[in-house]
Every structure is written in C-alpha cells, then in structure tokens.
Amino acid sequence: MRVPLIAGNWKMNKTISEAVAFAQELKLLAPFPGVEVLICPPYPALAPVAEVLAGTEIALGAQNVHWEDAGAFTGEVSPPMLKAAGCRYVIIGHSERRQYFGETDEIIQRKLKAALRHDLIPILCVGESLEVRERGGTFDLIAKQLEGALSGIGEEEIKELVIAYEPVWAIGTGRNARPEDAQEVNCFIRDWLARRYSPVKAGSWRIQYGGSVTPDNAAELLAQPDIDGALVGGASLKVESFAAIIRAAA
Ligand code: PEP
C-alpha cells in the first residue's frame, strides 16, 4: 500500500518570514491521515522552516543539490548541508533545472547518487515537451531520462525513490494532463522500474504526477491507480489550495 506524497515545490518564491508563516499555518491543519505531506522551500528558508515543522509529520525537502559533499563550488549546496538543515527529500532533475540551467541526464545521475548516499529521498522528475508528445515520442523520452538518471545505480543503493512524472507542457501552464494520459505514463514508468529493479521495489516506490495540479483536478488525477501523489508548484504557494489538494489525496 503506497501512501500518497503531496509535495509543494515553491520554486524561487517566499522569503524566510513568508515561508515560516506558511509552515505555521499548515502545521495547524496537521496531522493529515493517509497522506505524506512535504514542502520544498528555497534554500535560505530550509532551516527556519525545519524548526517550525519539528515534531510534526510534515516533511521538508530541497529543490536541488550538488553531488559533492564540500569544496570549491561557488553557489552550490551539498547533501550533508541539506541533511543538517532538516531535509528528508530533494527534488532532482526538475524540468526548469534541465531547461534553464543545462542539467543533463549525467548531472542528474550524479545528484541522484549523491542524494542516495546521504540518505536523502530523491524525487526524480521526468517528462516530455509538447513537441515530443505531439510526435509520439513520450515513452522513448521517459525511458531515456530514467536510463540516464539511474544508470549505474543498483537496487541495493536505493532505500526509497520517488519519481515525478511532469510533462513540461503542463508545468505552470494551467493545462494539466488528462488523468488517463498521466496514468498511462506512470504505469509505463512503474513497468520500466519493475524490469530494471524488481516488481516488489517498483510496486513500493511512489510515482507522482506534476503539472498544473489544483484543488479542482487533484481528486481525479490522484484516483488513478499508478498516481501516488502530486508535485505541486503554483497551487502549493497558498495554504488553502495546498491543503485542499492534500485533502483530495486522503
Ligand atoms: C512544478 O513546478 O513541479 C509544477 C508542477 O508546477 P505547477 O504545479 O505550477 O504546474
């Protein structure tokens, strides 16, 4: 039985005080039976938000990570730093990182390996552009992204893994994938993982959907058998809409 994971990816939004206020408000609504809730604020807000969330079941995650533990990498943040700030999860390979910051499958693989080594649960993002979907290349592209990110990573290295299927054309556009289309891709991802690792592992790892999830469409998306939660951008910035999506998952 997979517990759905509802994760808020705040991207480059909220100052420390805004993030703390959000966490305090969300905490008042906890616990959330039957759902795991995660928020991923920008780096500066991680430690202050961790303090607010201490003693609750609301998890904290980062939006990115470097693959080295320490060193001369100006502007980067390492897995031990994220652990020390209170993170349990880290988003890796978000399409905005791939698109605007040149992250390749090889970079994503390094980050994934580093996160796993430090006991951070990776949320690996995969997803196709509109152009790829329209020419029927979705499954090939998803397989290529999975292969690239997971190459050389053995089952024994993975305690827990989350995949987020996020079609690029659905992110921040207000145009979500149809539930049956998202289900089809999530099922494809699970089959791929079952072949690559084992059916037991693939059956236990959560596969989220992300892309314009709102309180209005969440229930229908989350009702699909292979959609085990949502990675939520815009609608995670307000407690009211984020809480409504959490309720839809319960
Ligand atoms: C995201 O950033 O991962 C995302 C899915 O954004 P939005 O919900 O705003 O489409």
UniProtKB/TrEMBL annotation:
Substrate binds at residues 9-11, 172, 212, 233-234. Pathway: Carbohydrate biosynthesis; gluconeogenesis; Carbohydrate degradation; glycolysis; D-glyceraldehyde 3-phosphate from glycerone phosphate: step 1/1. Gene3D superfamilies: Aldolase class I (3.20.20.70). Homodimer. It comes from the Bacteria. Involved in the gluconeogenesis. Catalyzes stereospecifically the conversion of dihydroxyacetone phosphate (DHAP) to D-glyceraldehyde-3-phosphate (G3P). It is an enzyme of class 5 (isomerase). Its main location: cytoplasm. It catalyses: D-glyceraldehyde 3-phosphate = dihydroxyacetone phosphate. It comes from Ammonifex thiophilus. One of its GO terms (biological process) is glycolytic process. Belongs to the triosephosphate isomerase family. Keywords: Cytoplasm, Gluconeogenesis, Glycolysis, Isomerase. The active site is at residues 94, 166. Its EC number is 5.3.1.1. It holds the Pfam family TIM. This is Triosephosphate isomerase. The gene is tpiA. One of its GO terms (molecular function) is triose-phosphate isomerase activity.
